[in-house]
Specification:
Number of strands of chain B: 17
InterPro entries (chain A): NTF2-like_dom_sf (IPR032710), Rng_hydr_dOase-bsu (IPR000391)
Strand order of the largest sheet of chain B: 1-10-9-4-3-2-5
CATH class of chain A: Alpha Beta
Order of helices and strands of chain A: HEHEHEEEEE
Largest sheet of chain B: 7 strands, antiparallel
Strand content of chain B: 15-25%
Largest interface: A-B, 37 and 39 residues
Radius of gyration of chain A: 16 Å
Distance between the termini of chain B: 50 Å
Shape of chain B: globular
Oligomer: heterodimer
Bound molecules: FE2/S2 (inorganic) cluster, fe (ii) ion
Family (chain A): Belongs to the bacterial ring-hydroxylating dioxygenase beta subunit family.
Strand content of chain A: 35-45%
Number of strands of chain A: 7
Organism (chain A): Sphingobium chungbukense
Distance between the termini of chain A: 32 Å
Number of helices of chain B: 10
GO molecular function, one term (chain A): dioxygenase activity
Helix content of chain A: 10-25%
CATH topology of the largest domain in chain B: Naphthalene 1,2-dioxygenase Alpha Subunit, Chain A, domain 1
Keywords (chain A): Dioxygenase, Oxidoreductase
Order of helices and strands of chain B: HHEEEEEEEEEEHEHHHEEHEEEEHHH
CATH class of the largest domain in chain B: Alpha Beta
Helix content of chain B: 10-25%
CATH superfamily of the largest domain in chain B: Naphthalene 1,2-dioxygenase Alpha Subunit, Chain A, domain 1
Chain lengths: ~160, ~425
């Protein structure tokens, strides 16, 4: 592997920044801004490795438009009943796996810690993101984001995005 | 007038009807231990999986009956079997994987091998090595099989029982349950995937929850607001003759938005302001000729078979202890689903499971009860909606099936435990 080109470094930087912002908006409860990280026509899914590894497509969360992402957040705010909790994402380095024009495919490990009302923090979900990111514009956006999680036993519920 | 206020005016005279369940049945280890013995290892049939999860000879799946690890296998002759996942030698887990395919079941510890029915077929060094060691001369292989459970499949749903005396599975289920299983399992199914949810509460709180049409439109805003389920819908709450099992069904086509709005008054869960940007989530197909859009079939003790819109799933309860259980959701469709139908099912899966816009809330409903009854030695719940008896209803404003569950529980386990 030779030294990366300037363009490769820029792509990698853009993808890592986007993932960091993704985590930040969720963890800081700025969920209304979160759908804007995605293209209008996009795909977001949170799927267990147990299903993914068997080539089964059943996901815990599956959205195929930005509107559906907004609906998830509106539902969380207005409709759903769940225990009070917050997330903290810990991200590993983002690696660019392939590039096609201005679209990059990346992979990033993550851990989500959950803190509930009782004050305890636990490892809630860990896995990897496989993302397709459009890095052409000033602000890069997800074309697709798939969180493939190892922790297939979900603690009580999943209402916030991973 | 809010729903709660309407209720108050009805509740003026003290009533002797109704069912009172001591909260300690949800917290006390003695009840939990007795349930394992009397229910899960007793005269009951527990759900263990779909035949579609083990389609080929040699396929197996590790699962549980109550807390006991078992293996569901498909033998080379096509039959399905359920055995306890514990080696007859010194008790090791024989299957350590969640699922897979094997021609025989071999324990890794000392390599005792069993066929797919659980019969012992191999013991290494049985006659010793170089004339030394070996099993005693009278060692009889046929006396050391895996513990084999009675196993019956009802239209592709596999049930197992530890009991030699319990009636056949179909009789245990009764005609209403069998008819509903036949309705949903009407053609070959294919598994879409699993979801696993750990709930920090007692498993019986979930048994109550799934026999409770009363809560469904009051807890779940999504149900109500989008008319997936309302207590005003045409529907029924029925039980089998023994009142163990519960069938709730409703027909969304019976919605009358204006009248329903009035009935729910200012209830939190009838939110006409809440609109979806992307309504594709709720676009489905009319699949069943009877127009029924919601079926919650709660089968005693550990299964729910459900249809919510176009989502089809079984939910299996696995107990971990008095205050913890796992809910395993196995979603399925039909083998002949076209591409659009597959897409509908995968999208509507957003409604159910631990991240389900509807179902996520039942986990919280269980936990807020568990958290409130901790340490409570004498208080009871009070279950009386619909009249306070274990009776069928041709409406959805009832808790009758919950009482049916408790009547059976009282008979099998009892509300009083002997001093330890
Ligand atoms: S415990 Fe299984 S072979 Fe010894
Ligand atoms: Fe519910």
């Amino acid at each position: 592997m030779g030294l990366p080109t300037l363009e490769q470094m820029q792509f990698q930087h853009a993808a890592a920044q986007l993932n960091a912002l993704h985590a930040e908006l969720i963890d800081d409860d700025r969920l209304e801004e979160w759908p804007n990280l995605f293209e209008e026509k996009c795909q977001y899914s949170v799927i267990s490795a147990e299903n993914h590894n068997r080539s089964l497509n059943l996901a815990a969360v599956f959205c195929d438009s930005r509107g559906m992402l907004v609906d998830r957040i509106v539902s969380l705010r207005r409709a759903n009943i769940f225990p009070a909790h917050s997330y903290r994402h810990i991200l590993g380095p983002t690696r660019v796996k392939s590039t096609s024009g201005q679209i990059v495919t990346t992979q990033t490990n993550y851990v989500v810690l959950m803190t509930r009302n009782d004050g305890q923090t636990s490892i809630y979900n860990s896995g990897k993101y496989v993302d397709q990111i459009d890095v052409s514009g000033a602000g890069s956006r997800f074309l697709s984001k798939t969180a493939i999680f190892d922790t297939h036993l979900i603690d009580t519920m999943m209402v916030r995005p991973i | 007038m809010s729903i709660a206020q309407q209720q108050d005016t009805l509740d003026q005279a003290p009533s002797t009807a109704g069912c009172r369940v001591p909260y300690r049945v949800f917290t006390d280890r003695q009840y939990y231990d007795r349930e394992q013995e009397k229910i899960f290892k007793g005269d009951c049939w527990s759900f263990v999986g779909l035949e579609a999860e083990v389609p080929k000879a040699g396929d197996f799946k590790s699962t549980f009956v109550g807390e006991t690890p078992v293996i569901l296998t498909r033998d080379s002759d096509g039959s399905v079997h359920v055995v306890v996942n514990r080696c007859a030698h010194r008790g090791a887990l024989v299957c350590r994987e969640m699922r897979g395919n094997r021609s025989s079941l071999e324990c890794v510890y000392h390599q005792w091998a069993y066929d797919l029915k659980g019969n012992l077929i191999g013991v290494p060094f049985r006659r010793g090595l170089k004339g030394q060691g070996g099993m005693p001369g009278d060692f009889d292989m046929s006396q050391h099989n895996l513990r084999q459970l009675r196993t019956e499949s009802v239209n592709g749903l596999v049930f197992a029982s530890f009991s030699e005396t319990v009636e056949s599975c179909r009789d245990f289920l009764g005609p209403i349950v069998v008819e509903q299983i036949e309705r949903i399992m009407c053609k070959p199914v294919t598994v879409l995937g699993d979801q696993r949810q750990r709930i920090r509460g007692n498993w019986k709180l979930y048994a109550e929850n799934t026999r409770d049409p009363y809560h469904a439109s009051l807890l779940h805003l999504f149900h109500n607001t989008f008319g997936l389920y309302r207590s005003t819908q045409t529907g029924k709450a029925l039980m089998d003759a023994n009142k163990r099992h519960s069938l709730l069904y409703s027909i969304a086509a019976s919605n009358d938005d204006a009248a329903d709005k009035q009935a729910y008054g200012d209830s939190r869960t009838f939110d006409t302001e809440f609109k979806l940007q992307d309504m594709s989530l709720l676009k489905g197909r009319q699949e069943f000729a009877d127009n029924v859009t919601l079926v919650i079939l709660a089968v005693y003790p550990n299964l729910v078979l459900q249809q919510i819109q176009n989502t089809l799933a079984v939910r299996q309860t696995v107990t971990y202890g008095p205050d913890e259980f796992e809910l395993v959701w196995t979603h399925f469709g039909y083998q002949d689903d076209d591409e659009e139908m597959q897409a509908i099912r995968l999208k509507q899966a957003n409604l159910i499971g631990p991240a389900g816009l509807i179902s996520m809330e039942d986990g919280e409903a269980v936990e807020i009860v568990q958290n409130a009854i901790v340490g409570e030695a004498s208080a009871t719940s009070y279950i009386a909606m619909g009249g306070g008896r274990a009776e069928d209803a041709d409406h959805l404003v009832t808790e009758g099936a919950i009482i049916g569950f408790w009547d059976n529980y009282r008979e099998m386990v009892g509300f009083e435990v002997e001093p330890a």
